[in-house]
Amino acid sequence: MQRPFDTPPTTHMVFVGLAMLGLVFFLFQLLSPSDRTLVSRWGATLTQSVAANGDALAANSSNALVGTAAQAGRGMGAEARPSGNPLQAANAVMTQGYGVGSHAPAATWGAIDLAIDGDGNGSADPAGSWDHPIYATHSGVVKVTPNSYPAGNHVWIENEQYRTGYAHLADFAVKGGQVVQRGDLIGYIGSTGMSSGPHLDYQVWERHNGTWVNVNPLEFDVLGQ
Ligand SMILES: [Zn+2]
Fold first, then answer.
1. Staple 169 to which of 25, 81, 104, 153, CB 3.0 to 4.6 Å?
2. CA-to-CA distance for 53 and 173, rounded, in angstroms?
3. Is 86:204 a contact under the CB 8 Å cutoff?
4. How far is the CA of 202 from the centre of ligand 1 (A)?
5. What is the 76 CA–ligand 1 centroid distance (Å)?
6. Total domain count for the chain?
């Protein structure tokens, strides 16, 4: 199209110009319905998330939740990647490292143990740790497993790319199927399952080519705050 309106508009030029305008308009009409579909799909996802946060979560809405989790992962916003300390406390301390002791081999049992130094003497103590709140480190869908072994009362939070595990809880603050965001309260420190004292066992798994791979939680700013 060589700037037809700068040249004297012959009948031919006007016809060509109108035809091209029509073509552009036609293409725009073709494209815009898909935009609207995308918007309404996200709207539906948001509605499902709100419903999932309510207490009236029915078993037959689990399909919608799976869809929500997939959408959250596909979007891969900053909230989807684990970040921060699940105890959100400046006096949180690590009582067992990654890949050692009961956390070995790391590929299967990789985790870190966290507890609270309540009296400020540099090491964790039960009094400061019991029932301390635990928070989601990323967005995802909750899976709750009560009284399991060795994890005790256990919470998974999972999206398409990441899964975090929170073990030995005294009690839950979430229900299975619930959608959480980073910073949401999910439970309280306890000593359920195979545990010698109140602490949080925290795991991070990352999906690689469809397989969940255990990764070091310390790579996700656990002690960086
Ligand atoms: Zn542990």
1. 153
2. 12
3. no
4. 7
5. 28
6. 1
DSSP string for 95-117: EE-TTSGGG-SHHHH--EEEEE-
pLDDT at 90: 94
Q: What's 191's domain CATH number? A: 2.70.70.10
Span from the CA of 66 to the centroid of ligand 1 (angstroms): 28
152 is a domain residue: yes
d(CA 74, ligand 1 centre) in Å:
30
- Let me know: does 147 contact 132? Beta carbons within 8 Å: no
The answer on pLDDT for 195 being more than 90 is yes
**pLDDT 10s digits, 95-117:** 999 999 999 999 999 999 999 99
Count helices and strands (H / E) in the chain: 4, 10
Residue 70 lies in a domain: no
Domain assignment of residue 31, yes or no: no
Q: Which residues contact 159 (CB under 8 A, 6 or more apart)?
A: 69, 72, 73, 80, 138, 139, 140, 141
Least trusted range by pLDDT, from 3-17, 29-43, 206-220: 29-43
Q: Residue 163 — pLDDT band, cuts 50, 70, 90? A: very high
What is the residue range of 100's domain?
79-220
User: How much distance in Å is there from the Cα of 221 to the middle of ligand 1?
Assistant: 18
The CA 176 to ligand 1 mean position distance, Å, reads 22
Kindly report the pTM of this predicted structure.
Answer: 0.67
Lowest-pLDDT range of 52-56, 70-74, 149-153, 168-172:
52-56
Cα(191) to centroid of ligand 1, in Å?
Answer: 11
Identify whether 168 is part of a domain.
Answer: yes
How many angstroms is it from 110 CA to the middle of ligand 1? 8
Distance 164 CA to ligand 1 centre (A): 13
Compute, in angstroms, the gap from residue 103 CA to the centroid of ligand 1: 6
